[in-house]
Amino acid sequence: MSPTSHALPAGAPVAAPAATEPALAHRVSRAVVTVRGADGAPLADADVVVGQVRHAVALGGIGFDVVDLLDADAHDPDGPGAGAPPEVGRRLAELFTEVFDTATLPFYWGAVEPERGAPRLERLERAARWFADRGVRLKGHPLVWHTVTADWLRELPTDEVERVALERVRRDVTRFAGLVGAWDVVNEAVIAPVFDNEPTQNGITRWFLERGRIPVIRAAFEAARESDPRATLLLNDFNMGTAFECLVEGVLEAGVPVDAIGLQSHMHQGYWGEERTTAVLDRFARYGLPLHMTETTLLSGDLMPAEVVDLNDFRPSAWPSTPEGEARQAEEVVRHYRTLVAHPAVQGVTYWGLGDAGAWLGAPVGLVRADGTPKPSFAALRDLVRGEWWVAPTTVRTDADGHLVLHGFLGDHRVTAGDRAADLVLDRAGDAVVDVVLR
Amino acid sequence: MSPTSHALPAGAPVAAPAATEPALAHRVSRAVVTVRGADGAPLADADVVVGQVRHAVALGGIGFDVVDLLDADAHDPDGPGAGAPPEVGRRLAELFTEVFDTATLPFYWGAVEPERGAPRLERLERAARWFADRGVRLKGHPLVWHTVTADWLRELPTDEVERVALERVRRDVTRFAGLVGAWDVVNEAVIAPVFDNEPTQNGITRWFLERGRIPVIRAAFEAARESDPRATLLLNDFNMGTAFECLVEGVLEAGVPVDAIGLQSHMHQGYWGEERTTAVLDRFARYGLPLHMTETTLLSGDLMPAEVVDLNDFRPSAWPSTPEGEARQAEEVVRHYRTLVAHPAVQGVTYWGLGDAGAWLGAPVGLVRADGTPKPSFAALRDLVRGEWWVAPTTVRTDADGHLVLHGFLGDHRVTAGDRAADLVLDRAGDAVVDVVLR
């Protein structure tokens, strides 16, 4: 980052443009910061640069393109969790960190371990390290899911399915502990035991059917928890109705260690609007757990007809991004993120696909076109999360006591003076008093 | 009952016409019965009359008409749980026991106790005794429901709503213990906390919303259980999907003492058909609890359009029973009962309205027209449950050891010889050996 052109006078707060918006008060801290030198003495009347590094709320995307980019030989455009072709993936990798600070990596069992006993985890680890090196937090998706699961489970008796499924949870969570901080532990459990879109029953559906949803969820969460006690463990679903509510209630009554609720929000049939979005958030916030909007998409092309029930059933031969669609998408992305971040329960938002290349169903959901050029939504989202809600590097003069005032969004900031620097974390909304020591 | 005209020869089994249907094997017993005199000695080579009294599986209807008939001054055709006008109710009361052996009584809180502290339980007790005197089992509906609940709950804080709601459960279950053998303890909990069809929030919805579904269900079932340990306690819902599945799973994981699952099955939009019906039964049978089809209806007139989501939204000014509709209904009623009784998990079926008079939404759901004349469905159902599946009183000669063979449906039968008689209960499917002593 580079300092802004003009220095603020002593006493002037360094502030994010939207720091005073009442609807965002729970996301913002106004901190009186004492800047100290390495000797501990206040750095009085000195020019320092203050800037934000990352939001506390996870504003993420999927990192599938980077996985494929770093393992280009293995790129399979039709495979599960496929990224863009490497030539576009290269551009997406550059653009990723301009809007996102968290990446979801594809741990689909069927892709991770198509052949039993030969897990392909190196490519995921390579991508994870690429992101971590760039300050991007990581999330794994999913550990238990009835779709894109290992085909070879079909042959195993249910006891064995359960055993190997839990082994795989332990194996992957253990291997990525400290690197992947959050997991969609169980995905779409509401429908899992009654899922019948396949000619033969997959092993995970059978496991759910024979043991029940809650026992499967409990076993998976306990396996993940024991493998990485610090990870954030999510129960994720596309069902936004009473079924997922009832499941969450049952799971919590049963004492399953769920850390957060994941709500998918693919909007192929149109933007939900503020009212519906807030109603959904309110209904799931009742359980006292943080909420992640785990799979958010807004189209920049024609919408899927409302009468389609299973989105997988709609596969047009071409689904182009259109100028009108892109204008609409840019507006809706901003409205949607404003609504989500305004809700106190939201701890994370994952946009499900930076680029159109390789997108689910071929839909134009990306913020970037299939050719790698950004759509208007890309700049619109960046202007919001790294503009309005952000403290760009700003030079400010400390006062006679070495104080400066930072009025910014919760998250990681950095203070630098010459070749010394210090991290500055705003971790609680409201007024704060913070000391930083430049080293 | 009167004996059939011809006596069976010694050794010939007394059998229900459908006793050998493989699909019903779980409902049928083939018992070698030793008939003994009061002295305990086998009654050899004697003519006795054998006949069925009641099915083990509860084949019931709603008893609302009888409540109003016995308390005609209080009949309010627009009130909750209203029965037919007394002049039609009189005919319905006669017809009831020709097809039904179990009656559901209306315990809607808003009707039972419209004024706080002045419960109107005498009229329900009068009706309950009327049915019990005729050998009809009783079920109460419902104890906790957000609809037709007491209006005065709106004024109370939630703690108080909870307290009085549980008091009312204890009061009513205690008073009717030994008379009402089954209760819909909680009705429609899936939708209860998100129910918003009313201008102001009812007290029960608020209770569910603030405490959660499972805590409310647990409290209600525990109150009912302690008030009548022998009663069959049902969790009843109209949701036949994953939401009710998830709720049932959570409730059972939480250890709530649920005895049976109640599945409503109003078919105002058309008969489900055998395949869907069996699929629903199979999905809920997974939990190992008996199933009751608690609110079955099939129309004898035009169907409600498929696009209506909340059936309450459809209120035509007139909804006549038609000749074609009546023929269709008669066929579908028989198909539906065959499907239900063929399923081993089904413990009860309640047809939701013997007559059209006073039917929910004014729909022609009854087996009897509004003027009190039976539709074809009435005879069709009677021919099935009291014909094919029934042992009509039959004279048979015992053999030299006092034996006779009864091949009939599980339930209560009776053996008589002259002025002596004995109850004969078939309570387990398959072959059985039974002794009865005539007294």
UniProtKB/TrEMBL annotation, chains A, B:
Gene Ontology process terms (BP): xylan catabolic process
Record-linked SUPFAM superfamilies: (Trans)glycosidases (SSF51445)
Q: Which domain of life is it from?
A: Bacteria
- Asked if the Swiss-Prot or TrEMBL record annotates the protein with the keyword Ribonucleoprotein, the reply is no
Tell me the keywords, alphabetical order.
Carbohydrate metabolism, Glycosidase, Hydrolase, Polysaccharide degradation, Signal, Xylan degradation
Reaction equation(s) it catalyzes: Endohydrolysis of (1->4)-beta-D-xylosidic linkages in xylans
Provide ranges: composition bias, Low complexity: 7-20
Q: Is Cell cycle found in the keyword set?
A: no
Known EC number: 3.2.1.8
PROSITE patterns from the UniProt entry: GH10_2
Q: Which Pfam families match?
A: Glyco_hydro_10
Query: Which portions of the sequence form the region Disordered?
Result: 1-20
A molecular-function term among this protein's GO annotations: endo-1,4-beta-xylanase activity
Which residues does the UniProt record annotate as the domain GH10?
Answer: 82-384
Q: Which family does it belong to?
A: Belongs to the glycosyl hydrolase 10 (cellulase F) family.
What is the protein's name according to its record? Beta-xylanase
Source organism of this protein record: Pseudokineococcus lusitanus
